[in-house]
Design a protein that fits this description.
The protein has 6 helices and 7 strands. By secondary structure, it is of the alpha+beta class.
Length: about 230
């Protein structure tokens, strides 16, 4: 895939929220209900925040070689709590449910909190597009051998084999479109792959018959935790 293809994916994904915000702003002119207008305003704010997250993540990718992001012991549960708290209202607005399942006995992993937050955030945003009240998305943290795994499960269409192999082999070198999964962020997966590689963690996915789990495996910290 050419560099131009990656640029097209980035342009498309950044253009989408801007177009949505424009449509929402125009709809305010016809919104006579104050409660409805406030809801539109909240949706505009949430959409702009997602776009800002993507821009900030792209800026961080450009600075990875500067070694500005220090590795330290972090609590994966705390990171997931922060992400799900931020996204809870967005899931609710879209009539989606997000469940949490913490089963890890090892509490601390070696990572950068800022980068790990972005990885989990992008996983959850992808999952929000698929499922509903009957098929909730799930954020799980559990031990996986000598690693701590954070996995986000969705119930969307299968990931194309070509993209699955790229992720499995660690060759996500630029943003890629994800056919068959409309609304899925190829940019988000690219960001997650870059940050996982920087943190010496494994990034991958598991294809289920009824969805996909995206995960990151983090090295366990040797620092004791009494949390």
């Amino acid at each position: 895939m050419s560099a131009n293809s990656g640029a097209i994916v980035v342009a498309h994904e950044l253009k989408a929220p801007l177009s949505l915000m424009r449509q929402l702003a125009l709809s305010l002119d016809y919104e006579e209900d104050i409660k409805g207008a406030r809801e539109v305003g909240r949706q505009i704010a949430a959409t702009s925040e997602r776009a800002i997250h993507q821009v900030n993540d792209l800026a961080r990718i450009a600075r990875l070689d500067d070694a500005l992001f220090e590795m330290e012991p972090v609590n994966p549960r705390a990171i997931c709590d922060d992400v799900t708290t931020e996204l809870w209202s967005l899931f609710k607005f879209n009539r989606r449910e997000l469940r949490i399942d913490y089963r890890n006995k090892r509490r601390l992993a070696v990572a950068n909190a800022q980068l790990l937050y972005s990885v989990v955030y992008n996983f959850c945003l992808n999952a929000m597009n698929y499922g509903g009240e009957e098929y909730p998305s799930e954020v799980a943290v559990f031990d996986r051998g000598d690693k701590i795994r954070i996995a986000v499960r969705d119930y969307g269409p299968t990931v194309p084999t070509k993209i699955w192999r790229e992720i499995k082999d660690g060759f996500v070198k630029q943003p890629v479109a994800t056919p068959m999964r409309p609304g899925s962020s190829g940019l988000g997966l690219y960001i997650a792959a870059k940050f996982a590689n920087y943190m010496n963690s494994d990034f991958g996915l598991i294809r289920h018959r009824d969805g996909t789990s995206f995960y990151i495996d983090l090295p366990v910290s040797g620092q004791l935790s009494f949390l």
